[in-house]
């Protein structure tokens, strides 16, 4: 009798946890295949620290092959899933195609940047969902401070020192907090003109930062940010983005060369391509994470609309905490389904939240106990070390070095503006010269034209003219 074939699509929080759970439960009695564009699991909560130069990029990546014993890794992205034939059609990083047959499928494709119909945003903003975007932002911020320090024009200097972050949720709040500390460190090495200081704006249409969290966490975060000089603009967003700056909804035009888009995420379009019942772009599943009418298919994480058993009629939010725990339940239920065992429903008890505000500051409420200041900072870092499936010693070592040594404010020049467009279904991959991403989009959606080849497009999209597009034939 042949061994059952299990295919897991995506190695984010849900997919990685499902693969790890299945590898331990199967013990070699099943063929487990993990399809993912990269060979690592990305620990997203620490990505702002990569952008700030605190952590080296590999610290937040965990090797899939090195930590998932008995799991076969296939590099690539799912183009199409044939539910009737029980097969996943995928494309590898070098354009080769393959078909993965399955007896059980776990769909954990995750999410991508959420776009809004705001003129100019897709062309002039950058998201913050993948390692390439974090590396680009670190280089870009460093470059702007260096250029501002040598600028003769006061207006140009001020614009380069102005950084706009849209979205005051988890990501936007942490990006603004870490970014402000980074630019303060940079200007100590690159003094600016008299009277010019780095200016950070955090915008959100909601009435407070972190609107989805407890009010006390929100108040703590807002107080810390404002105390550092970050301009927190609630009830305000971007009406239009241009090459020279952004027009806000309150009518003010802000001269800037940096627009970071952290408005939120949307489910990967792969889920919607299946033609199954959806809930706001997420695949409807039973409490057991099984897809109705498809007993061999399970979905979890941001791709799945999982009923919240504690809030009838509601679905669990798209958070890493839910995805991580859903991945475990999905793995257990897939294993149980192969032997005719009982499937368990997903139910999650809120353990609290942590928000890193940079330095020793944080906001946290472990088990509902509100904390702030250095104590919250210690709890936050302890939580991340405990939650990471690897690299704990390396992360702790980087934190120690950052506490005693000055940061290295240099550009690496590895990621260019055009290679990390906002409108992409593959934020974990950089776009290659000629318009093709390094791998294909989930769901087979066509890649957006490279700016150097798109009809009528500027050579390098962004709020500022940049000389970082590849020369002819430059690889």
UniProtKB/TrEMBL annotation:
Domain FAD/NAD(P)-binding as annotated: residue spans: 5-327
SUPFAM superfamilies tied to this protein: FAD/NAD(P)-binding domain
Keywords of this entry: FAD, Flavoprotein, NAD, Oxidoreductase
InterPro entries with a match to the protein in the record: FAD/NAD-bd_sf, FAD/NAD-binding_dom, NDH-2
Gene Ontology molecular function, alphabetical: NADH dehydrogenase activity
Sequence segments annotated as region (Disordered): 427-475
Family: Belongs to the NADH dehydrogenase family.
Protein name: NAD(P)/FAD-dependent oxidoreductase
Originating species: Streptomyces galbus
Lineage, broadest ranks: Bacteria, Bacillati, Actinomycetota, Actinomycetes, Kitasatosporales
């Amino acid at each position: 009798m042949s061994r059952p074939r299990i295919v897991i699509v995506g190695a984010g929080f849900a997919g990685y946890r499902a693969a790890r759970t299945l590898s331990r439960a199967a013990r070699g009695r099943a063929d487990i295949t993990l399809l993912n564009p990269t060979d690592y699991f990305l620990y997203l909560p620490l990505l702002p620290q990569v952008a700030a130069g605190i952590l080296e990029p590999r610290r937040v990546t965990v090797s899939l092959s090195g930590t998932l014993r008995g799991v076969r890794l296939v590099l690539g992205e799912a183009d199409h899933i044939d539910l009737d034939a029980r097969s996943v059609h995928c494309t590898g990083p070098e354009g080769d195609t393959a078909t993965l047959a399955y007896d059980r499928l776990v769909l954990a494709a995750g999410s991508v940047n959420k776009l809004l119909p705001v003129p100019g945003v897709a062309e002039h903003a950058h998201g913050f969902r993948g390692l390439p975007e974090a590396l680009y932002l670190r280089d870009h911020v460093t470059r702007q401070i260096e250029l501002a320090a040598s600028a003769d024009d006061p207006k140009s200097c001020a614009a380069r020192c102005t950084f706009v972050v849209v979205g005051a949720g988890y990501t936007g709040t942490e990006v603004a907090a870490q970014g402000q500390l980074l630019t303060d460190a940079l200007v100590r090495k690159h003094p600016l003109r008299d009277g010019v200081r780095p200016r950070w704006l955090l915008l959100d249409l909601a009435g407070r930062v972190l609107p989805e969290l407890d009010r006390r966490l929100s108040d703590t975060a807002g107080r810390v940010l404002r105390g550092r000089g970050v301009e927190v603009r609630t009830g305000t967003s971007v009406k239009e983005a241009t090459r020279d700056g952004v027009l806000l909804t309150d009518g003010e035009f802000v001269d800037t060369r940096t627009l970071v888009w952290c408005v939120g995420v949307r489910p990967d379009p792969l889920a919607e391509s299946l033609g199954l019942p959806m809930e706001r772009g997420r695949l409807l599943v039973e409490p057991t994470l099984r897809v109705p009418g498809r007993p061999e298919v399970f979905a979890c994480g941001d791709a799945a609309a999982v009923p919240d058993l504690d809030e009838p009629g509601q679905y669990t939010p798209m958070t890493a905490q839910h995805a991580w725990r859903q991945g475990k339940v999905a793995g257990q239920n897939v294993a149980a389904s192969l032997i005719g065992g009982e499937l368990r429903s997903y139910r999650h008890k809120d353990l609290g939240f942590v928000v890193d505000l940079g330095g020793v500051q944080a906001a946290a409420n472990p088990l509902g106990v509100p904390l702030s200041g250095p104590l919250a900072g210690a709890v936050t870092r302890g939580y991340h070390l405990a939650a990471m499936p690897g690299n704990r010693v390396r992360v702790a070592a980087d934190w120690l070095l950052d506490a005693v040594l000055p940061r290295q404010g240099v550009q690496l020049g590895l990621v260019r503006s055009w290679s990390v467009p906002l409108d992409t279904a593959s934020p974990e991959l950089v776009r290659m010269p000629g318009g093709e991403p390094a791998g294909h989009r989930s769901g087979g959606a066509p890649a957006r034209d490279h700016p150097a080849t798109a009809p009528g497009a500027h050579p390098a999209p962004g709020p500022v003219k940049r000389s970082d597009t590849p020369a002819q034939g430059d690889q």
